[in-house]
Here is the input.
Amino acid sequence: MFDIKSVDFIWLVLMGLTLLSAAIAESPDQGLLLILVITLTVAYKGRMIVDHFMELKDANRLLRNSMRIYFYVIPAMIVLVYLFPDLIARLTTLQ
Amino acid sequence: MPNSVATPIQAVLPTKNHVPGNMAIWVGILSEMTEFALMFIVYFIAKVHNPEFFADGPLRLNTTAGVLNTLVLLSSSYFVIKAIKSIRIGRIDQCQRWLWSAVAMGMLYLIIKFYEYQWNSDRGLATDTDIFFTVYYYTTFNHLLHVGWGSGAILWAIMGIRMGGITQQNHSGLEAVAVYWHMIDLAWIVIFPLLYVLR
Here is the structure.
């Protein structure tokens, strides 16, 4: 049986998390804690849509993993860019 | 299988390990996700080289428009999965209503985005204002195009249902449109914090 209530609940949670991000956008100072909150929000939203809206949770494993990994890599890049901007700038400078 | 128990409406559920839609749409989706990933890499590289523009840029954008469009796209994705669940239990009319609601959300997104671009223009913000706005316009306009033709794809699915090509028993075409639409939502879930929230 499919649980039709679960997507209703997930939708409401995702809407709430969007409003949380909006509040953070207005924050004057974005420290590491807020960056982590934003990052986890992106990862969670992506995972919920991949698993429950795209319905990949019990679907083809290759497709599921391909989509899930996206929402590990992008949030990780957000944190790395915040923590090591100078290093990444050096690594991406053409000599 | 619990299907041995007679129910008034027999749901047509996906099997385990199935491919939602078809493999062709997944080639398209993974290609599009790669394209958006390249845009995000451009954003990250541009940001570390020009931190001052990327700290100031989000503060000059219309955050309300970005938040509203996030809520609109999330709702459209929700309406699309509700349409899928409706067609599986044979509620064709209900399925179409959910799909029309999703199309309406797509149109609302475009209206908000054009308002936002006009709002920017009124304040002198353009593609050549600085590197942040170049990245912002390239990424968001590209995404806007996806919302436009994604809405068209949902309209195609509605026509398919009305003409009998998409049914409770055979709705892989609708599933393909649905997962493509969710991909558009996924891209925005990354774009929104990168351009409107993070500084």
Remarks:
- The helical segments of chain B are 23-49, 51-60, 63-88, 92-122, 131-162, 172-197.
